[in-house]
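Feature request, filed as a ticket because there's no other form

It would be nice if the structure record came with a short human-readable summary line next to the C-alpha coordinates. Right now we just get the raw output. Example of a typical job, pasted below so the devs can see what we mean:
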Amino acid sequence: MDKIEHIGIAVKNLEASNKLFASLLGKEHYKIEEVASEGVKTSFFKTGPNKIELLQATNTESPIAKFIEKKGEGIHHIAFAVLDIKSEIERLKNEGFVVLNEVPKKGADNKLVAFLHPKTTNGVLIELCQEIN
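Raw output as currently delivered:
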Protein backbone atom coordinates (compact mmCIF):
# COMPACT_ATOMS: atom_id res chain seq x y z
CA MET A 1 0.00 0.00 0.00
CA ASP A 2 1.49 3.27 -1.15
CA LYS A 3 -0.32 5.92 0.87
CA ILE A 4 -3.66 6.88 2.32
CA GLU A 5 -5.68 7.74 -0.80
CA HIS A 6 -8.59 9.32 1.06
CA ILE A 7 -10.73 9.20 4.18
CA GLY A 8 -14.43 8.51 3.56
CA ILE A 9 -17.01 10.24 5.75
CA ALA A 10 -20.68 9.20 5.73
CA VAL A 11 -23.05 12.19 5.76
CA LYS A 12 -26.82 12.61 5.75
CA ASN A 13 -26.89 15.76 3.62
CA LEU A 14 -24.16 16.26 1.02
CA GLU A 15 -25.03 19.89 0.30
CA ALA A 16 -24.89 20.91 3.98
CA SER A 17 -21.73 18.85 4.53
CA ASN A 18 -20.07 20.43 1.48
CA LYS A 19 -20.66 23.85 3.06
CA LEU A 20 -19.34 22.68 6.41
CA PHE A 21 -16.15 21.13 4.96
CA ALA A 22 -15.57 24.10 2.63
CA SER A 23 -15.67 26.33 5.70
CA LEU A 24 -13.47 23.94 7.69
CA LEU A 25 -10.85 23.43 4.96
CA GLY A 26 -10.99 26.90 3.42
CA LYS A 27 -11.70 25.59 -0.08
CA GLU A 28 -14.54 24.17 -2.13
CA HIS A 29 -14.96 20.54 -3.17
CA TYR A 30 -13.43 19.69 -6.56
CA LYS A 31 -15.80 16.97 -7.71
CA ILE A 32 -19.27 15.54 -7.09
CA GLU A 33 -19.94 12.09 -8.50
CA GLU A 34 -22.68 9.49 -8.18
CA VAL A 35 -21.84 5.80 -8.05
CA ALA A 36 -25.24 4.26 -8.81
CA SER A 37 -24.06 0.68 -8.26
CA GLU A 38 -23.26 1.57 -4.62
CA GLY A 39 -26.26 3.85 -4.06
CA VAL A 40 -24.03 6.77 -3.15
CA LYS A 41 -23.30 10.34 -4.15
CA THR A 42 -19.78 11.52 -3.35
CA SER A 43 -18.01 14.82 -3.00
CA PHE A 44 -14.23 15.18 -2.88
CA PHE A 45 -12.07 17.76 -1.14
CA LYS A 46 -8.31 18.05 -1.44
CA THR A 47 -6.12 19.67 1.15
CA GLY A 48 -2.38 19.38 0.59
CA PRO A 49 -1.68 15.78 -0.42
CA ASN A 50 -4.81 14.54 1.38
CA LYS A 51 -8.33 13.86 0.13
CA ILE A 52 -11.63 13.68 1.98
CA GLU A 53 -14.60 11.88 0.37
CA LEU A 54 -18.06 12.76 1.66
CA LEU A 55 -20.63 10.01 0.99
CA GLN A 56 -24.42 10.45 0.97
CA ALA A 57 -26.78 7.54 0.37
CA THR A 58 -29.04 7.80 -2.67
CA ASN A 59 -31.38 5.04 -1.48
CA THR A 60 -32.33 3.31 1.76
CA GLU A 61 -30.55 0.06 0.80
CA SER A 62 -27.20 1.77 0.27
CA PRO A 63 -24.34 0.66 2.53
CA ILE A 64 -24.00 4.33 3.54
CA ALA A 65 -27.68 4.53 4.57
CA LYS A 66 -27.26 1.40 6.67
CA PHE A 67 -24.03 2.72 8.21
CA ILE A 68 -25.65 6.03 9.20
CA GLU A 69 -28.72 4.24 10.58
CA LYS A 70 -26.49 2.05 12.76
CA LYS A 71 -23.65 4.41 13.72
CA GLY A 72 -24.62 7.92 12.64
CA GLU A 73 -22.56 10.28 10.52
CA GLY A 74 -18.81 9.97 10.70
CA ILE A 75 -15.72 8.24 9.38
CA HIS A 76 -16.84 5.36 7.18
CA HIS A 77 -13.54 4.09 5.73
CA ILE A 78 -9.88 4.71 5.12
CA ALA A 79 -8.72 4.12 1.55
CA PHE A 80 -5.19 3.15 0.55
CA ALA A 81 -3.69 3.60 -2.91
CA VAL A 82 -2.27 0.42 -4.45
CA LEU A 83 -0.46 -0.14 -7.74
CA ASP A 84 -1.95 -3.58 -8.50
CA ILE A 85 -5.26 -4.15 -6.75
CA LYS A 86 -5.63 -7.78 -7.86
CA SER A 87 -2.28 -8.84 -6.46
CA GLU A 88 -2.91 -6.82 -3.29
CA ILE A 89 -6.25 -8.62 -2.81
CA GLU A 90 -4.48 -11.98 -3.13
CA ARG A 91 -1.70 -10.93 -0.74
CA LEU A 92 -4.21 -9.77 1.87
CA LYS A 93 -6.33 -12.93 1.54
CA ASN A 94 -3.16 -14.98 2.10
CA GLU A 95 -2.48 -12.89 5.21
CA GLY A 96 -5.92 -13.88 6.58
CA PHE A 97 -7.92 -10.73 5.88
CA VAL A 98 -11.53 -11.09 4.74
CA VAL A 99 -11.92 -9.37 1.37
CA LEU A 100 -15.46 -8.18 0.61
CA ASN A 101 -14.82 -7.74 -3.13
CA GLU A 102 -12.55 -10.42 -4.55
CA VAL A 103 -13.12 -8.87 -7.97
CA PRO A 104 -12.39 -5.13 -7.95
CA LYS A 105 -15.24 -2.86 -9.03
CA LYS A 106 -15.42 0.65 -10.44
CA GLY A 107 -15.61 3.26 -7.73
CA ALA A 108 -15.62 7.03 -7.61
CA ASP A 109 -12.78 9.29 -8.74
CA ASN A 110 -11.62 7.00 -11.59
CA LYS A 111 -10.64 4.11 -9.30
CA LEU A 112 -10.96 0.35 -9.13
CA VAL A 113 -11.86 -0.50 -5.54
CA ALA A 114 -12.16 -3.41 -3.12
CA PHE A 115 -12.90 -3.48 0.60
CA LEU A 116 -11.61 -5.45 3.58
CA HIS A 117 -14.10 -6.53 6.24
CA PRO A 118 -13.75 -4.47 9.42
CA LYS A 119 -13.87 -7.58 11.61
CA THR A 120 -10.36 -8.39 10.36
CA THR A 121 -8.98 -4.82 10.55
CA ASN A 122 -9.73 -3.78 14.15
CA GLY A 123 -13.18 -2.42 13.25
CA VAL A 124 -12.02 -0.14 10.41
CA LEU A 125 -13.41 -0.59 6.90
CA ILE A 126 -10.39 -0.50 4.59
CA GLU A 127 -10.70 0.35 0.90
CA LEU A 128 -8.05 -0.47 -1.69
CA CYS A 129 -7.90 1.97 -4.63
CA GLN A 130 -6.12 1.60 -7.95
CA GLU A 131 -6.13 4.39 -10.52
CA ILE A 132 -7.84 3.33 -13.78
CA ASN A 133 -5.49 4.05 -16.66
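Something like this underneath would help us a lot:
The longest strand covers residues 3-10.
The beta strands are 3-10, 31-35, 40-47, 50-57, 74-81, 105-107, 111-116, 126-131.
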